[in-house]
Amino acid sequence: MEKRNIPGVHRYDAPAGGWGALRATAKAVAEQMHVAEAPLLLLRTNKPDGFDCPGCAWPDKEHTSTFQFCENGAKAVTWEATKKRVTPEFFAEHTVAELLQQSDYELENHGRITHPMAYDPASDTYKPVEWDDAFARIGEVLRGLPDPDMAEFYTSGRASNEAAFLFNIFAREFGTNNFPDCSNMCHEATSVGLPQAIGIGKGTVSLEDFDHCDLIIAMGHNPGTNHPRMMGTLHECARRGVPIFVFNPLRERALERFADPQNPIEMASFSATPIASTYHQVKVGGDAAALKGIMKAVIARADAGENVLDRDFIAAHTNGFDAFTEDLRQTPWAAIEAASGLARGALEVVADAYVRSNATIVSYGMGVTQHEKGTQNVQQIAALLLLRGNYGKPGAGICPLRGHSNVQGNRTVGITEKPDPLMFANVERAFGFRPPSNHGHDAVKAMQAMVDGKAKVLVCLGGNFSVAMPDADLSYQGMRNLDLAVHLNTKLNRSHLLIGKEAIILPVLGRTERDVQVTGAQSITVEDSMSMVHASRGKLEPASEHLRSEPAIIAGIAMATLPASKVDWQGLIADYDRIRDKIEAVYPDFRDYNTRIRHPGGFRLPLGPTERVWHTKSGKAEFIPFAGLEEDPMLAGTDVLKLTTLRSHDQYNTTVYGLDDRYRGVFGRRDVLFISERDLAAQNLEHGDLVEIISAIPGQEHKRIRLTAIAHDIAPGSIGAYYPEANNLCPLTYQDPQSGTPSYKSLPVRLRKIA
Ligand SMILES: Nc1nc2c(c(=O)[nH]1)N[C@H]1C(S)=C(S)[C@@H](COP(=O)(O)OP(=O)(O)OC[C@H]3O[C@@H](n4cnc5c(=O)[nH]c(N)nc54)[C@H](O)[C@@H]3O)O[C@H]1N2
Ligand SMILES: Nc1nc2c(c(=O)[nH]1)N[C@H]1C(S)=C(S)[C@@H](COP(=O)(O)OP(=O)(O)OC[C@H]3O[C@@H](n4cnc5c(=O)[nH]c(N)nc54)[C@H](O)[C@@H]3O)O[C@H]1N2
Ligand SMILES: [Mo]
């Protein structure tokens, strides 16, 4: 059948990267900034004396490599370094009601906010406010709360270690452990699942390990878009002949073929390197089943007498092997095939490659964590690696692809709602106060408290909390229930416009910009996905002379809120070395912080598993079985499809840079639903039909959104739509019960054709 021609939907046949990436970078630069400044600026990204790229958390070779060309890094940098400005005049000309009609793309594209602004209900506009008046008002409202737990302190992962640490200390001295953060929506399944399994909630590989690995399994992540610098690494591995098995319901172009813009031969000859040696289009939510299938095949071979396990490692370093393998033996292949959508033979091929590899890396992202069984998914990956001792040897380990450029660092310096007695004792020693001992709120609990009217003040260190969260109807209402929302941000977003009683926007310096305090220019520090901590120093002239740094703003709020504070806020922000000394006092892993940060490339935080040291309760790594295969067996065999939510190539979370998703062949629009030809036929739909997507979670309100269904190479039974447009379909509490991560990537839905 001839396919209908749908506006803005074309095939994209070129490889990822290559000339398309160069053209897109030139366009991003031209649109956002004065062209002359751009090359210089981009050259400073991820250089020893430059700033850390705010795009992603993938490390750079010793931070001294020549500039690595990266389209989406360039977009992140130019989006921040834009010449466009949101001034008091802009706010005077646009009421909040009017701005609410604009798309997320339009809102941020107005540019950088230049002045602190406070909402004025009489005119329904934001009006300029003096910094000190803003701080005083925030302090007054916070002090007026009957209970400090009625305030929520949200962190988005772009904040530096220094800012996040001050935020941690301020809120705890204020008297709460309410620390919702973006990590709760992202890698919380890693932060909860891995400590139980291997004793630390972080990845164990280093960049060098990719030079020594024999096999890579890449599950549920899309590096061509979200971790573009990883493409250089995968490209090298592929050219070295390392098999790369991809598990992803969608055929993502960069995981199929990639042309490295730094490779003159590929560029000149328009050629590309195949990345995935085998591409497994696992069903949405089918990863645990696929992993169990691979492990079942390995165990069957071991049971048949083959020497395929690292028995010495298992005996010396692990617990729970027998119960774990017994569960695998009991799990029928038919169930594994049904839940994963993959054939037994295909999984046995992966198992065969796995047992022949002496050093395997498994990398994974949101396709694994944002599920009802996210924690178990992560633990199955950890277990697969344990079977052959793939920890603490060169070329092996687990590699979670972190989200925001410093989300991992934020965690390390204390952004967590869980009270940690060791840290609290150190805080008491370093600052002379003891934080409260009750459990605080994570992101979902914080939003629930706002919805229920139990939380009245929200202070956001970056991000766009309500738009990132599930259930837009409820989350927007949560914002509107607040007495006061305080936003430390660079750009205008929808969370600023969902106003309860009062709202204040405090514009911050971006990472690319010079941060000068009374003792001179300051550096901040960040931790990448591989636990390397390094310094970052902005070089650009700030977008406005009225901006302040995140640490300075937090100190300002703290001094206005806590007149009798035990913390020398002025002293700390005068010289960020002093903040780092305090971080070291509270977190001893940062020993000699200020010295080591001055070495090129910084330093690596200790990671037990790399030395085969396991900080679990038993002192050993744990095989944790996952009994069952279906995320929600109640839904099997019905007309229900599983919806996953995706990022486009022109997007950074809720920040929409543009309306194209080049590699998936979508141009100038985001209102599409990716669906297989088979499901189109099964649902009596045609490519290009307008459909209603209706949530089908038992016992939940059946919300709906409308999108245009387009035929795409996606696993049958699975469909995809863009985040945040589809967030309303995810109920607030539809989450992984162990980690609290919203199940953004496995939403049961039904489709209905709009006539
Ligand atoms: N340019 C850019 N860079 C970014 C971001 C951005 O938005 N834009 N966001 C940053 C942040 S905060 C994060 S957390 C990371 C996100 O980076 P990723 O983890 O790559 O995030 P997603 O794009 O949400 O989804 C990844 C992939 O999971 C696949 N997938 C969906 N459901 C499933 C499933 O059930 N199983 C499997 N195996 N795969 C599935 C999708 O097809 C998609 O290819 O990137 C960071 N870097
Ligand atoms: N359906 C669905 N929902 C999801 C996801 C999904 O895959 N599907 N992914 C989830 C994930 S992984 C994450 S991490 C969250 C993201 O949630 P958030 O981190 O809250 O959201 P962002 O969109 O990254 O935040 C954008 C805002 O950050 C501000 N900003 C940018 N740079 C800076 C800076 O340097 N300092 C400060 N202070 N502000 C700055 C800008 O004003 C911008 O408007 O969303 C989650 N939501
Ligand atoms: Mo994230």
Automatic annotation (TrEMBL):
Top-level taxon: Bacteria
InterPro entries: Asp_de-COase-like_dom_sf, MopB_CT_YdeP, MoPterin_dinucl-bd_dom, Mopterin_OxRdtase, Mopterin_OxRdtse_a_bac, Prok_molybdopt-oxidoreductase, YdeP_MopB
Domain Molybdopterin dinucleotide-binding: 641-747
Keyword terms of this UniProt record: 4Fe-4S, Iron, Iron-sulfur, Metal-binding, Molybdenum, Oxidoreductase
Domain Molybdopterin oxidoreductase: 112-488
Cofactor(s) the protein requires to work: [4Fe-4S] cluster; Mo-bis(molybdopterin guanine dinucleotide)
Listed SUPFAM superfamilies: ADC-like, Formate dehydrogenase/DMSO reductase, domains 1-3
Family: Belongs to the prokaryotic molybdopterin-containing oxidoreductase family.
Name recorded for this polypeptide: Molybdopterin oxidoreductase alpha subunit
